[in-house]
Amino acid sequence: MKRNREEIISQILSICMDGAIKTRVVYKANLNFKTVEPYLELLVKNKLLKVQPGKRTFYETTKKGENLLKAMENVNRVIGFRSL
User: Fold this and answer.
1) Which residues pair with residue 51 across a beta bridge?
2) Residue 51: which domain range?
3) What is the band of 82 on the pLDDT scale with cuts at 50, 70, 90?
């Protein structure tokens, strides 16, 4: 079953709650490196993720990202979709 864009974004925000490198995001979200890049760029651009550069780039969900994730979960709960 294909996931929609919102499900993928929700998964990425959830994975990055305690911080994650790109490899962890790719494997946990079941994506590939080519697919995950536009999502990470979009989330960073919109300040939903913050980047901590170093030897390995580290992504962490911001407060704004946490708020979006909670809102998405609430919408899914209200309309009866499974939890993301």
Assistant:
1) 59
2) 5-74
3) low
**Rounded Cα gap, residues 20 and 26, in angstroms:** 10
Give tens-digit pLDDT for 11-39: 999 999 999 999 999 999 999 999 999 99
71 token code pair: 């809102």
CATH number, domain at 36? 1.10.10.10
Check: CB of residue 13 under 8 Å from CB of residue 47.
no
Residue 63 belongs to some domain of the structure: yes
82 within some domain:
no
pLDDT value at position 65? 97
Query: What pTM was estimated for this model as a whole?
Result: 0.88
